[in-house]
Amino acid sequence: MEITTPVNRVPRVGPAYARRLEKLGIKTVEDLLYHFPFRYEDLTKVQSISEIQYGQLAVIKGSVWQIKSLRTRYGKFLTLATVNDGSGTIQAVWFNQPYITKNLKNGLRVVFAGKVDDFNHLPTLMSPEYEVVREDGRKGIHTERLVPVYPETAGISSKWLRSRLKPLLDIFSDRLIDFLPPEITRTKKLLDLSESIRQIHFPDNVDLARKARERLAFEELFLIQLNALRRKEEWKKSQGGKAFKVDEKMVSELLESLPFELTTAQDRCVKEILTDISRKEPMNRLLEGDVGSGKTIVAAIAMYVIYLNGFQSTMMAPTEILAQQHFKTVSSLLSSFGVKVGLQTGSKKWKEDFDILVGTHALLSSKVEFKNLGLIVIDEQHRFGVAQRADLRQKGQTPHILTMTATPIPRTMALTLYGDLNLSVIDEMPQGRIKIKTYVITKEKREDAYSFLKNKVKSGQQAFIICPLIEPSETLSTARSAKKEFGRLQNEIFPDLKLGLLHGQLKAKEKDEVLSQFRDKKFDILVATPVVEVGIDIPNATIMMVETSDRFGLAQLHQLRGRVGRGTQESFCLLFIENYSPEAYKRLKVMERHHLGIELAEIDLQTRGPGEIYGTAQHGIPNFKIASLTDARLIEDTRIIAEKILEDDFELQKAPLLKERLNRISSPNVSPD
Ligand code: ADP
Ligand code: MG
Known about the structure:
The chain is α/β, with parallel strands linked by helices.
């Protein structure tokens, strides 16, 4: 067996489990070894039966005196055993596991671990984990140690994993060759690979478990950064990049023509971009800024500079409507300076003769011929994929690339995930913008909030009420569901008002229908799931109410809040919470004070971790196996080391094992396009 051997050939795995493992992305022996526990159960200390107490998790080592399975009146199985360890006896009970009598026979020495409770008026180990004591005196794997607990998904139990992993580790633990250069392991005092893999699964003690985790987190971030930096370098070294001349005087004239002054943040971003395009290495930059922070003008300035150099630009948006909007904006900014702006949409042909061509993302793959493409601006595609860049390069064009997004990605996260991009952030809103008044609403104030809403609606405004779920859920009894809440609000709270319902189970056409009715004021309140998070513009809606708001990330709440305040009227965001912890309350209160997406995303990252920022994986933020994106120091560290190693040896000729590992990883850093 090799580490690349498919898991279905691992002893006692079999095709059914191989399929389950595949769902978790585990295809090879190596993948399985890299499937880590998320915590350990401390079952190290064996206690005497005479000492144990009700309610505790007890570990007992004794002999089975008696074991039998009974059928209960309800046709279920009950397995009862008596265990003695010299200090006393205790009963053990299992439900519906009659096969246990096959494993545990009278007289066997066994370790049990389970909660002690009362059963038929006797102290009893309830459904304990059990493991026959080995004759060779070696430790068990399910008891008498720090026992690894794995995320239990896809029908794979921790017990199953432990019993498959242990023999694998015995085979591989001294065959894993460390691919990290020895200087790094030495100076960073990292555990070597074999030891780390062994200790992460079956640690000898807490300290070694921590050291294993450190090493593996280092390795994970290090590999991601190396990959990103290599991609970045390759792009930079592409042939055909153009260094453009920046005519400051002409740029100033353009700025003077604007009805406003750039914010300091916009100004800084413009400088960063213009510096990039004045260099020969092609730019690959991400411009981040909240909706309304003024990204378009920043991009337009860059396109103007490209025009002054006699080159073309293109600007691409996710939808035709947005493309049309960009076309209007860019034309009105630049036409009077002689720039010819064209629009290409599905229905409309482009002009042959353009300096800037605006269109949808499809533009790039269409047949449009660019005379000399100097800059690509992409709105809301999050990042321009590696594949598309390779495509362009093949066509012999290496334009500068500027990607724009309103998704707030904290810097540490961007550094790691998008390490091949440079980052500019507009972290400031233009002056005079009215902030959306935000309040956390506890149970006692719910009725007041409803009357407040009623008054606003009477004066002609509209409201959203967002619920976290579509249908009522058994497991999440605290979270309100859109369907049920819709009925309750319509019948009990707002019988005189007209309510609409929008959720993700509706077909696209039905959703459009509901939204256009809302826009036409066919109803006053739209009850919805978070599907309204993006891209909906209804200027007359001034109130955003969010139910069970503690279930959302702050950045996600911010995106919801951005659905109101799009007209000229004062707008409000009311965050309902019912049964909450003091921390949840404190976290939500942050929304009352902070009005910038990037700040809220940073706070999310610090308090909840990367997976929680955007609700689901919808934004393509991968799950890390072990590293944490909140560990800024480790991110910096691995970054610096990765940069240094590539600087000396870009092809990694001196580190062939590392190179081979890098080529093999199924990089979690997938392009989320
Ligand atoms: P986004 O970042 O969402 O793409 P836009 O570029 O569409 O934002 O800008 C939103 C609005 O703000 C536009 O009407 C734009 O003209 C205006 N705007 C941009 N920059 C400024 C500024 N510095 N001061 C005032 N208004 C600005
Ligand atoms: Mg925009």
